[in-house]
Design brief:
Layout (H helix, E strand, L loop, with lengths): L1 H17 L5 H14 L4 H7 L8 H4 L1 H13 L6 H26 L4 H29 L3 H28 L10 H4 L5 E5 L8 E6 L2 E8 L2 E6 L13 E4 L5 E4 L6 E3 L5 E3 L8 E7 L2 E5 L5
Antiparallel strand pairs: 1-10, 2-3, 3-4, 4-9, 5-6, 6-7, 7-8, 9-10
The structure holds FE2/S2 (inorganic) cluster.
């Protein structure tokens, strides 16, 4: 009962944002600016968190939020003005890399997610501005107004965090969209057809149980991956076959360009940070069978 009311409230708050098409021209401009600032390549992958196999943005936001929360506590303790001022400065400076990583992730989302994301941006921009003004006031010796500004900043940053939480947990931005695959692929070896069902040198869409998969045939060898991209569930089997710098065959997602090794599903290019589940394949009695490693 309580959760039904809470759900209604959350829907009432966020539905207008998710459906606010009036934001789209601004989003388009910002998206182009972010893509121009951080074009596809290694730097962009680092900002997404591809080398770490973990998103960078949630880690970096802890520095400004931690600094500002600590300053809010110190502001209640007499004689700690200097320490509080320094923490606010650290938070304002640390907001820049946090914003850059967030903007990079944001620029490769669905439109409803981008609308929520742009409101998250705006709230955080206001929070940083309030903290910057607070710092200036404190430097001028006006600690009273500096404290008021920073408490306002904390309130707005908390609202920004709430919106970011909705983006991540309700709208599933930044989560691994292939996580459920190992839990729903039927265990053991599963027949998916005969070798002739899979055209040579091509990617073919198939399924194991309810899970869509892609099959790439190279002679007698078959590479099999889960078909829904770990970034945002794009149909990998509709993507392009490409060759990575080390010569390995890869598939590039048609939606945002994430690139995965066909051999093992590892991420070769973001924005995806989680690998595609790869299945083992074998042939026997004219049939092709697949199995998740370790699921026998
Ligand atoms: S869905 Fe975004 S890269 Fe595949």
């Amino acid at each position: 009962m309580l959760s039904a009311s809470a759900n209604r409230i959350v829907t009432k708050i966020f539905s207008p944002v998710e459906n606010a098409t009036a934001l789209d021209p601004l989003i388009s401009t910002l998206q182009k600016a972010v893509r121009a600032l951080v074009p596809p390549g290694e730097v962009r992958d680092v900002l997404h968190g591809v080398p770490a196999a973990h998103p960078v943005h949630p880690v970096l936001v802890q520095i400004p939020l931690g600094s500002w929360t600590s300053a809010a506590i110190l502001d209640l303790v007499p004689g700690t003005e200097s320490a509080s001022r320094r923490l606010i400065c650290v938070g304002v400076l640390a907001a820049a890399p946090a914003a850059l990583t967030g903007a990079t992730d944001w620029s490769e989302l669905h439109e409803q997610q981008m609308r929520t994301g742009v409101v998250h941006w705006a709230a955080n921009l206001v929070a940083v501005s309030l903290y910057a003004a607070s710092y200036v006031q404190r430097r001028r010796g006006r600690d009273g107004s500096g404290k008021v500004l920073s408490y306002l900043g904390l309130a707005v940053a908390s609202a920004g965090g709430f919106i970011g939480g909705h983006l991540a947990y309700h709208q599933a931005a930044g989560v691994n969209h292939a996580e459920e695959v190992p839990h729903i692929v039927p265990s053991g070896w599963n027949s998916i057809g005969t070798l002739e069902d899979f055209a040579e040198g091509r990617v073919t869409r198939s399924a194991v149980g309810d899970v869509p998969i892609l099959v790439f045939r190279d002679g007698e060898r078959l590479s099999v991956l889960s078909d829904r991209c770990s970034h945002l569930s794009g149909p990998l089997s509709e993507g392009d076959l490409v060759t990575d710098a080390d010569g390995s065959a890869c598939i590039r997602c048609p939606w945002h360009g994430s690139t995965f090794s066909l051999a093992d599903g590892s991420v070769r290019r973001g924005p995806a940070i989680a690998p595609q589940p790869a299945l083992q394949a074998r042939q026997g009695d004219g049939r092709v069978e697949v199995m998740l490693p370790g699921a026998d």
